[in-house]
Amino acid sequence: MKVIQIDKKDWDRGIDQSRKAYHIFGPVTDDNQSVFKLLADDQYPDMERPDTIMSPKSVLFPQSEKILGASLDPAVENHHIMERPETDYSPRAVIGIRPYDAKALTLVNLNFDTPEYQDPYWCDAYAATTFVGLAVNHPSHADFSLAMGSGPFAEEGLDALLVDTGDFYLAKILTPKGEAYFAQAGFDKIADTDKSLEKIEELKAAAEASMGPVKVFTDKLAEKTILDLHSAPFWDDLAFTCINCGTCTFVCPTCWCFDIQDEAKGKSAARFRNWDTCMSPLFTMHGSGHNPRGEKTQRVRQRFMHKLKYFVDKYEQGTMCVGCGRCVEKCPVNIDIRLICNKMNSYQPQK
Q1: What is the side-by-side strand order in the sheet with 129-134?
Q2: Residue 214 — pLDDT band, cuts 50, 70, 90?
Q3: Which of these, 26, 62, 98, 235, has the minimum number of CB atoms within 10 Å of its CB?
Q4: Cβ distance 279 to 303 under 8 Å?
Q5: Does residue 32 surpass a pLDDT of 80?
Q6: Mean pLDDT throughout 31-57?
């Protein structure tokens, strides 16, 4: 295990050095909120406020992405044939990603990169990206990542983990991609491994202790019967509160639902993939006019059953929630996935 010590005074210089080989994405404050975006040459990741309103999922899975294009001009070769557009998949680095967001990307990867099917847009972007995480020294009140198989210092999905110790960062190098990034940035001061790991464990223990005892339970979800949970009586009460705005799905780092739309203008045509939400009645509308989830209760149930039951059964890798807390903070009617998870986990059908 290699640990690198980075003086914060040298941080911007290293970021500039790495721009020579990488496109840099990081958290910046924009319109009074923190978001991940491609950084301009004069921008640096805001490491003091990396708890972003949205996850950096969009670096790999953009909210709107042109996936095919065609010419409608008969004089052009291969006209009316959809072809994949040229896309820049040169190396990129996401700096300051939180551990729970890195974990979330590994869960989305289960859907887009399977033994049978590989989504080329996702797979190419994933392969080109280096993830440099930033540990969470002070978890927010809504952070329940530890209960969902991640945590403030978790390493899954990361190529390196930065730990803020005050005047400097300690960087745990986890993969060859992480090592290559820090070499390019010129961060090469090797720290005392034993002392560094001891310091990191100390900060990790303090961060986890500040989250208090586990209050979200998932241990019985796998043993529940789908039809029992599907017919549970609490869905109607939950749906009564929900306004179907879809905020929870758009801020969620593990949602992967999308829609396909074809557009034509002049002699050009394009096919776009756009984020969609299962909370919208149009999401399941058939061409025939039939809608299998036309009622709000059905859509609310689908969202939580997918996150906390269907995913659990299909992949056997825990829930489709990493505990980032964004949906808890942003829901305008205060629906709390933690309470719903506990309801599902403890539910016993009436005999």
Answers
A1: 2-7, 168-173, 160-164, 129-134, 92-97, 23-30, 33-38
A2: confident
A3: 62
A4: yes
A5: no
A6: 91
* The model scores a pTM over 0.90: yes
Position 228 pLDDT exceeds 80: yes
Which long-range CB contacts under 8 A does 220-227 form with residues at least 24 apart? 220/345, 220/346, 221/308, 221/309, 221/312, 221/319, 221/341, 221/344, 221/345, 222/312, 222/313, 222/316, 224/309, 224/344, 224/345, 224/347, 226/305, 226/309, 226/310, 226/313
Residue 351 has pLDDT above 90, yes or no: no
Asked if residues 18 and 188 have their Cβ atoms less than 8 Å apart, the reply is no
Tokens describing residue 110: 């289960």
Q: How far apart are CA 106 and CA 103, in angstroms?
A: 5
How far is it, in rounded angstroms, from Cα 148 to Cα 146? 5
Distance CA 33, CA 13 (A): 25
Tell me what pLDDT residue 51 has: 85
